[in-house]
Every structure is written in structure tokens, then in C-alpha cells.
Design goal:
Layout: H1 33-37, E1 42-47, H2 51-58, E2 63-66, E3 71-79, E4 82-89, E5 97-101, H3 108-119, E6 126-129, E7 140-142, E8 155-157
Antiparallel strand pairs: 1-5, 1-6, 2-3, 3-4, 4-5, 7-8
């Protein structure tokens, strides 16, 4: 069988995964599996800890991925009928991770409570319930204001 040779990339083509807003001369734009699926995820909260302790407790493999923001650590898993993702972007505050349902569900609070119970952590590990990217329906205060250890970006719902 004859070996087929593929030409080298054009010299003025940028790496496909590093193109911002599909700028540049490379006709291909590469995106990650995370970037492809994350837009349909439902954010249900923010944990005041990184991805790794949860992954270690549940014996999950932490995957390294990227999206339009930067690189991130992520675990995707099923737990008692809920499909979860826990992510931490490199550019986000240290010591926090986002909790998502990969299949939106009306019982988001129950899902987060289930995660806390199985992981063996309490409500004090929750920095925020709901979608931290949307305006909260209730007033919020920083963890420092609530009399707990403060950290960048940590917020508690319903505390003054």
C-alpha cells in the first residue's frame, strides 16, 4: 500500500485551539469537549474548595481541558441519579470550584445536597447556591462578612 503524505501546515496558520473568536488565517478552529458541552450545563453552586479533594473522595480522574477563557480542571460523573460536572478555571479565584448539572434538573438544591452528603462535607463548603453568573435573587455578602474565613470570589446567599 502506498503511504499518503499530508502536507505541513501553512506557515501563517495559527494553532487551531488558540484562535480567539476564530481570528487568523487557519481555516480550522478546534474546541474542547468541555467547550462544546458546557453551554447546556446548569450551574447549581460554587464550592469553597478546589476540584481535587472532591475527586479524591469519589475516586474520580481530574481531566485537563480548555475553553474560550483559559485552561481548567474538570470532573464529570453521575451520582444518585444526577449528572454532575465540577470545574475550576485557572483564572478563577484559588480555592473555589463551580458545580454544574450536565443535564438540567428542577431539583438543583437536592442535587447539591446529595453531592455534599456523599462527599461528606457540610453546608459550610458551599460558597454560593444557584448560578453565580446570574444576578442573585437575594442579597449576598462575602464570606468575610458572614464571619467565616474569607476568600476571593466567595459569596453566600441570603446573608447580610
Amino acid at each position: 500500500m502506498t503511504e499518503i503524505e499530508v502536507p505541513a501546515p501553512e506557515p501563517d496558520w495559527q494553532p487551531a485551539a488558540q484562535l480567539s473568536y476564530h481570528a487568523g488565517k487557519n481555516p480550522a478552529y478546534q474546541y474542547s469537549v468541555w467547550e462544546h458541552h458546557a453551554p447546556i450545563f446548569q450551574m447549581i453552586g460554587v464550592l469553597a474548595l478546589s476540584v481535587q479533594p472532591v475527586a479524591q473522595r469519589l475516586r474520580l480522574h481530574v481531566e485537563r481541558s480548555w475553553d474560550g477563557l483559559d485552561e481548567l480542571d474538570v470532573v464529570l460523573f453521575r451520582l444518585k441519579g444526577f449528572s454532575f460536572a465540577i470545574s475550576k478555571h485557572d483564572g478563577n479565584p484559588v480555592g473555589v470550584s463551580y458545580v454544574w448539572l450536565t443535564e438540567p434538573h428542577e431539583q438543583a438544591d437536592k442535587a447539591l445536597d446529595t453531592l455534599l452528603e456523599v462527599v461528606g462535607i457540610g453546608e459550610d463548603a458551599v460558597a454560593f447556591r444557584g448560578d453565580a453568573h446570574k444576578d442573585p435573587a437575594e442579597p449576598t455578602a462575602t464570606v468575610h462578612d458572614a464571619g467565616r474565613q474569607s476568600g476571593p470570589g466567595r459569596r453566600l446567599r441570603g446573608t447580610a
